[in-house]
Design a protein that fits this description.
The structure holds 2 protein chains of 2 kinds. Chain A is built from 7 helices and 1 strand, in the order αααααααβ. By secondary structure, chain A is mainly α. The radius of gyration of chain A is 18 Å and the shape is globular. In chain B, the strands form 6 sheets. In chain B, strands 6, 13, 14, 16, 17, 18 and 21 form a 7-stranded antiparallel beta sheet that branches. Chain B has a 6-stranded mixed beta sheet with strand order 7-2-1-11-24-23. In chain B, strands 3-20-19 form a 3-stranded mixed beta sheet, covered by helices on one side. Chain B has 12 helices and 24 strands. By secondary structure, chain B is of the alpha/beta class. Chain B is globular. Chain B folds into 2 domains: 1-170 and 248-343 and 435-457 and 501-570, FAD/NAD(P)-binding domain; 173-211 and 344-431 and 461-496. Classes of the chains: A mainly alpha, B alpha/beta. At the A-B interface, α3, α5, α6, α7 and β1 of A face α6, β15 and α10 of B.
């Protein structure tokens, strides 16, 4: 399956919209209902592109196809302390006009020792990674989660498995 | 108080009343009903039926809105309960929220409660280590609290009795500090745990690292299948309630067993206000119950009453049970009710890593258990500048290397996890010395919505605890260094008492009515038809996770109560 097929397949299966709230996407609204932080469509566009650059689609879906960017925003909104939210938003605002290239942004933020940008980039990376690895798609198809694993093996040789990408 | 006794006295009269449906109350109900007594079990919270009322038990990780994490709103609204390791998105519905049941912390105390049928037996950590002779003789040898009125030989047959029914996995390790029991096959230690166990055995003649004895059905026996329980599947999602009945809880085991006899009336939403003492008959005749929902008050009667409301709430009920004969609480002639409360000291941890065993790992299930180091300090004689000692948990796992970089590199790293070093960790479980100043008491005026006085908790660490923390950190670091572990990190969380969820005492057992509340059969010295067999009865705490001991004490006390009733002595 090539990348385009995988993505359209995903959309058909609806797996990617698990995080979308019931509200319809409109021009001036963002696609997730947030309670504490406010995100405008321009910022959302940046965050979506950034998530796609952090974990891109290959022959399997990337972060945005799996809704990891919206999961990240939900976690910032619901679970972060006020101080962390403020730093995240300040970092986002100062980066939103930049090209969404995470490696480049990180290098620049480190060079400038910009605390808010660093907080934003680290938190967003962590949450996008969490949203991706804990998505139904990854936990079903790529790194299967066993709800009922059965036997425990305390000491077995490390096996090398075929590489996934 | 509005009394609403719609049913006649005869209909509200039973052969036995059990207050509480947690780990010890469940055992009391099972034993009474099996012996043919018509039993009323009162539970202050709502019903939780095995299999039917475990709403999250089969949920996948991605089905939790925050993947298990607590929201800021919940943490801010629940500063106490949110500190509990098991209070997470998947099981928070089984814990008491801070604002629903307030209490007064005269000193910081994190009171962790589960108000529902099954109580905390749904949520416990399932570690079931027997006490040894060294534990029971502790107070007498070391001159604190009062002498236990029982010894290991009194409880040993009852440990066996409850172990067979509950299903305890473990090895026969042959240690005099941790007697062997009736074990199902043990869970397996992993490579690094086996390695450490071997190193410790080589280096210290009196220190041992074993797999924890745990209430899990590794190989179910006919008695467990008869309960409708099946083999533990290593899901390690126990706190949600187990669809296999793989671990022991009141819900999966003792309560359905008691219900099957047809002798049990299980009544949820029933807050016990007090025990009724009849001055004329000079005994307890029943209990006063406030309906948790309607707040109506009803009285129930029985010739024998077991108080299993969980340690501190058992104290609360007895303190609130005042009468002409007992103006300071039921059975409280000594004035010691609510005093000498103790707990386990869980403050300290040591973690490290191990670079060896690089070509081995663990796999398959998520083992719901870990290693255990029985107490080795001051066992045979006093050898340190503090009294008693600590047991410790020990566990290891093979970590994965953090995925680095961005884009396709990061993705490849996430999808192809490479093993990192073995990570190991240990936490202490220290004995605390019961003191008269560690108390629970009732507020003279403030009451809750069920007309129960507000509880004051006044419990703190002492110098002995501080010295023990320091010794644990030093000894564990030394054992880790000896084993070649690196990056050894010590931590004293300074967490408040309570978070160990092993609060005990206040209604202690003893020989002498002047210095204790209960006799060797867990009977109130001064009100013989009331028994206390939950954590409140504990004279000292030792270091073992206490639930197994409560189960054994309960089965033993019910046997004694029923025998006494038959002889006409109750």
């Amino acid at each position: 399956m090539n990348r385009r097929e995988v993505i359209s397949h995903m959309i058909w299966m609806g797996a990617g919209i698990a995080f979308l709230p019931s509200c319809v996407y409109k021009q001036d609204q963002v696609s997730i209902q947030l309670k504490k932080i406010q995100i405008n469509p321009k910022q959302e566009k940046f965050l979506t592109a950034l998530a796609a650059a952090i974990i891109p689609a290959t022959d399997t879906p990337g972060a945005t196809e799996l809704g990891a960017h919206l999961f990240a925003l939900k976690m910032v909104d619901d679970c972060m302390t006020k101080e962390s939210q403020d730093a995240f938003m300040a970092g986002l605002k100062s980066l939103q006009a930049e090209e969404p290239d995470p490696a480049k942004l990180m290098t620049a933020a480190e060079a400038a020792d910009n605390k808010e940008q660093l907080a934003f980039l680290k938190d967003y990376r962590r949450l996008v990674v969490q949203g991706y690895t804990m998505s139904e798609y990854v936990m079903t198809n790529l790194l299967p989660y066993q709800l009922v694993p059965g036997k425990y093996y305390g000491c077995v040789p490390v096996k090398s498995l075929p590489a996934k990408s | 108080m509005g009394y609403l006794n719609t049913k006649g006295v005869a209909e509200r009269t039973y052969d036995a009343i059990v207050i509480g449906s947690g780990i010890s109350g469940g055992w009391a109900a099972k034993e009474f009903t099996e012996k043919g007594l018509k039993t009323l079990m009162l539970e202050r919270g709502p019903d939780v039926r095995h299999l039917k009322d475990y709403p999250t038990t089969n949920m996948m990780p991605w089905e939790f809105e925050h993947r298990g994490q607590l929201t800021r709103e919940i943490i801010e609204a629940n500063p106490v309960i949110s500190k509990c390791y098991a209070f997470r998105e998947d099981a928070m519905h089984f814990f008491v929220k801070d604002k629903d049941h307030p209490y007064a912390q005269d000193k910081p105390f994190d009171w962790i409660r589960g108000y529902q049928v099954g109580g905390k037996s749904l949520l416990w950590a399932r570690q079931t280590q027997r006490w040894s002779e060294f534990d029971f003789e502790g107070p007498a040898r070391d001159g604190f609290a009062v002498d236990w009125p029982i010894r290991y030989k009194d409880l040993a047959p009852w440990y066996s009795y409850v172990e067979k029914f509950a299903g305890i996995s473990g090895n026969k390790d042959g240690l005099d500090t941790l007697p062997d029991g009736e074990f199902l096959p043990a869970m397996e230690m992993n490579c690094v745990e086996k390695y450490f166990s071997g190193k410790v055995a080589e280096t210290y003649k009196d220190r041992h690292v074993i797999i924890g004895r745990a209430a899990h059905l590794t190989v179910p026996q006919p008695i467990h299948l008869e309960q409708g329980r099946a083999q533990c599947q290593n899901r390690n999602l126990c706190q949600r309630g187990c669809p296999f009945g793989g671990y022991f809880s009141s819900n999966s085991s003792t309560i359905p067993w008691a219900l099957k006899t047809g002798k049990l009336t299980l009544q949820p939403n029933s807050v016990v206000h007090s025990i009724i003492f009849d001055d004329r008959q000079q005994k307890a005749t029943g209990v006063r119950v406030v309906d948790a929902v309607s707040k109506a008050v009803t009285e129930y009667f029985a010739p024998v009453i077991f108080v299993n409301a969980a340690a501190l709430n058992t104290n609360l009920i007895l303190l609130n049970s005042t009468s002409g004969r007992f103006p300071n609480g039921l059975g409280n002639d000594s004035g010691l009710l609510g005093k000498y409360v103790a707990f386990h000291n869980y403050r300290a941890r040591v973690s490290a890593e191990y670079e060896g065993l690089a070509d081995s790992t663990q796999s398959g299930g998520r083992r719901p258990n870990s290693g255990y180091i029985p107490r080795f300090r001051n066992v045979y004689k006093q050898e340190t500048d503090f009294l008693r000692g600590y047991a410790a948990g020990f566990g290891g796992y093979r970590s994965t290397m953090p995925a680095k970089g961005w884009g396709e590199d990061l993705k490849k790293g996430l999808l192809n996890p490479t093993p990192g070093n073995w990570q190991v960790g240990s936490h202490m479980m220290g004995e605390t010395i019961p003191k008269e100043t560690n108390t629970v008491s009732l507020d003279p005026s403030k009451k809750d919505a069920w007309d129960m006085p507000l509880m004051h908790i006044n419990i703190a660490y002492d110098d002995n605890d501080e010295k023990m923390v320091a010794d644990y950190l030093e000894q564990t670091s030394e054992m880790f260094r000896m084993a070649g572990f690196t990056n050894i990190t010590t931590n004293d969380s300074k967490q408040a008492p309570g978070l160990d969820i092993h609060e005990m005492g206040g209604v202690r057992m003893g020989h002498d009515p002047k210095t204790s509340l209960l006799n060797k059969w867990n009977q109130l010295h001064h009100c013989k038809n009331v028994f206390v067999t939950d954590g409140a009865c504990m004279t000292s705490t030792s270091t073992q996770n206490p639930s197994l001991t409560y189960m054994a004490l309960t089965a033993r006390a019910v046997d004694y109560a029923v025998t006494s009733m038959k002889k006409g002595n109750l």
